Amino acid sequence: MANSSAPRLATALGKIFAVTVILIWSIGPIALIFVASLTHERDIFAAARTAWRPTFENFIMLWRKWGDFFAGLTNSLIIAAGATLLAVAVSTLAGFGYSRWRSRFLSGSAFALIALRLLPPIVTTLPLFPVVNALRLNDTHAVLIILYAAFFVSLGTMVMRTFIDQIPRELDEAAAMDGATQFQILRKVILPLCGQGMVAVAIFVIVFAWNEFLFAFIFTTKWAKTAPLVMSEMIGSLDGVEWGVLFAATITQLLPVLLFVILSQRHLIEGLTAGATKG
Amino acid sequence: MSAISGAVSDNRRALPFVAPALILIGAVILLPAFYVLYLSFNESTFGRAPTFVGFANYARILADPYFWRALLNTAVVVLIVVHVELALALGMALLFASGLPFRKWLIAAVLAPYAVSEVGAVVMWRTIFDPDAGVMTRLLESLGLPTLEWSVWPSHGLALVAILSIWLHLPFTFIILYAARLGLPAEIYEAARIDGAGPLQIFRRVTFPLLIPAMLVAMLFRYIFAFRLFSEVWLLTQGGPARTTEVVAVYLYLEAFRYNNFGVATATGWLMVLASLLLASFYLRRIYKEMFARGE
């Protein structure tokens, strides 16, 4: 068959071209903003860039003028950590329950978990708004932690159930024979073996909570503002657009989670496929 | 032990484990959804007692040209985004499955946009298509092509929203299709090659039909999630100029928080819920059947 070298060369060139296009598309915009964040404000949009001398000027300006942004990063960190702990704990418990027992009620409620996840978040925020106000939870970390966790419990439960399903039930039974309660079984037998699933769920929640905009926009105004919200205010308030500072903020907010996603990509992929195709 | 008492004790044992999840979802999603339904039949504003008005809110929405404009915008953007994304993801999945050097690094690069917030993505794509100095604007100009005047023309604004959306969500669709493609058994391909099938035939007769279930899953997920599109539009155009780039979620937000019209906003919300469920019903039915088959 196609053993001559010409078609092979053509295929190779085609692949190189395709990969180049994919790379430019995927990381081009990120690289562009990264370079711009390290460029003098006045040179960013200069038509011809003679020599690019990296500068941290924009980051320094960001630090000096936008204390709000760093408060936002702290809030994002607290909220992401809280939401992750809550979502992983609740999903692991539920994943164990749904993996080990069967009944009409359980299948029905598992189905409800998935179905409810399909409701548009903006819909449920409307009635929550007055409730959150009445409970004086408005503009607190707690409200975002609870909301973010709730929106990931369905996917988290499905992922955890898939992972726990793979742990042989004989292990549970052996522990039960030794007199362990169900909670002890979960803690001593299941938990050490389903770490991978918990990591996968944690990655989803962290990335989501770190980047989320809509809930933060509706439920926070001052004290619990997250970094994306402060960035959106920077976009809005830029009369004489301080692009350099905005780029510096974008990169500062992006870098930690980008590194995180790259380092944990294997778990992310496993979690995505377990959650999407089996649940 | 009879089947019924077995199920009852199963329930009792499982309940402590599943209860936290059910309470969380119930309190944050289910109860509010019903309360939204109740509010949608009422005239209500923030901080005032609602009065029952039947379907008046729905009638008002359906008579509002801005709603129809928003619905049309949403539909167009969703259709473009989901299908372009699916086609790109399929091509990329096949390319990656055909064997590439540095595959791990390339996948990391493809996943990168997944880490970017909607706000970050808006900053990036706004800069690229900046009307005066954006890289893309200048490239298009130097090629003598028309540029994207997204802050002037509604269709251009929505096009930028679509590009941005595809960029942000392509990693998700790609991973689903890539995993599905890797899951196809190699023997099928060997058999097809032995039968003398060319690459195009293999794609049409083997790969494509076998990937259809995964494509449906990816498509339904993306339909439902794309339908709630809010941040990209809000951050780029706020629905302007003159409410021409509004999407349904932006319409809802404006009704609720700018015009203080909770009744109309909640009715819009329920129209969104119905549309989402309609889109998902086929997929939900499949899950339901699977679960009950396993549950009995």
Q: Compute the separation of the termini of chain A in Å.
A: 43 Å
Major sheet description of chain A: none
Strand content of chain A: under 5%
Strand content of chain B: under 5%
Q: State Rg of chain A.
A: 24 Å
Tally of extended strands of chain B? 2
The overall average pLDDT of chain B, rounded, is 87
Write the layout of secondary structure elements.
The complex is a heterodimer of chains A (279) and B (296).
Chain A: H1 5-37, H2 41-44, H3 57-65, H4 67-100, H5 104-117, H6 121-134, H7 141-165, H8 169-177, H9 182-190, H10 195-211, H11 214-219, H12 227-237, H13 243-263, H14 265-278
Chain B: H1 3-40, E1 42-43, E2 51-52, H2 56-62, H3 65-97, H4 103-111, H5 118-128, H6 135-142, H7 154-183, H8 186-194, H9 199-227, H10 231-236, H11 248-258, H12 262-295
Antiparallel strand pairs in B: 1-2
Describe the structure.
The complex is a heterodimer of chains A (279) and B (296). With 279 residues, chain A is an all-alpha fold. Chain A has 14 helices and no strands. In chain A, helix 4 (67-100) packs parallel to helix 7. The model of chain A has no long low-confidence stretch (mean pLDDT 87). By secondary structure, chain B is mainly α. Chain B is 76% helix and 1% strand. Chain B contains twelve helices and two strands; from the N terminus they run αββααααααααααα. Chain B has helices at residues 3-40, 56-62, 65-97, 103-111, 118-128, 135-142, 154-183, 186-194, 199-227, 231-236, 248-258, 262-295, and strands at 42-43, 51-52. Chain B has a two-stranded antiparallel ribbon with strand order 1-2. In chain B, helix 2 crosses helix 12 (262-295). The radius of gyration of chain B is 24 Å and the shape is flat.
Question: Short summary of the structure?
Answer:
The complex is a heterodimer of chains A (279) and B (296). Chain A has 279 residues and is mainly alpha-helical.
